[in-house]
Amino acid sequence: MAEVAKLLLISGSLRGGSTNSATLRTAAALAPAGVETEIYDGMGRLPHFNPDDDPTDGVGLDPEVAALRSALAATDGLLLSTPEYAGALPGSFKNLLDWTVGGGQTYEMPVAWINVSGQAAPSGGADAHESLRKVLGYTGSRIVEEAVLRLPLSRDDVGEDGLVTPPEARAKIVEAVSVLATASSRL
Ligand SMILES: Cc1cc2nc3c(=O)[nH]c(=O)nc-3n(C[C@H](O)[C@H](O)[C@H](O)COP(=O)(O)O)c2cc1C
Predict the structure, then answer these.
(1) What is the pLDDT of residues 18-76, one digit of tens each?
(2) 117 alpha carbon to ligand 1 midpoint, in Å?
(3) Does the global pTM surpass 0.85?
């Protein structure tokens, strides 16, 4: 049987013209054979995390949280791409990550990210990604370092089709997908 890896792609940006979301769309569009991708698009619909709303028996769990956890449970690996806001992870993305703690689906899950923060950004997104690494440590995820990518992009690097246009950037995205998929693959 051919090896197949399923990757869930989650953007930390809700912005319509997001370069982070464009990067993940590009990853999905150019994913090599044997790699199945799904773009998660429910971040903006998640409720604010409240431990009181996360019962251990799961009864009464918000359907959007349940959908997120189902998507995580169905994937072999996770590819993230997030901006930095005010020296930290975007609040809505941290909210999503907080919901993953109780679910446990990301425990030992292969995870990587692509940091596309532009060169002009104050810290190049470094603080957000340091924080992301720390959060993923708390959830027990397995960071696939070889697939973690720093790829500065500008808004001009996204074409009218919503995909990243520079060929070298596209090649690096495909390489990251390929490496993460190999680390996530199952027979
Ligand atoms: C409110 C706000 C705060 C930001 N703060 C930072 C920051 O602290 N560090 C940084 O590197 N970039 C910062 N940026 C720049 C964004 O991270 C950058 O524009 C990013 O590429 C936006 O991602 P998107 O295109 O996916 O929306 C900030 C942008 C906004 C809108």
Answers:
(1) 999 999 999 999 999 999 999 999 999 999 999 999 998 888 999 999 999 999 999 99
(2) 7
(3) yes
Q: How far is the CA of 128 from the centre of ligand 1 (A)?
A: 10
What's the CA gap between 87 and 146, in Å, rounded?
25
3-state per-residue secondary structure call for 50-74: CHHHCCCCCCCCCHHHHHHHHHHHC
Distances (CA, A) of 183 to 39, 82, 95, 186: 19, 21, 27, 9
Distance 60 CA to ligand 1 centre (A): 35
- The neighbour count for residue 160, using CB atoms within 10 Å, is 6
Specify the ligand 1 atom closest to the Cα of 116. 21
CA distance 95 to 127: 17
pLDDT tens track for 141-185: 999 999 999 999 999 999 999 999 999 999 999 999 999 999 998
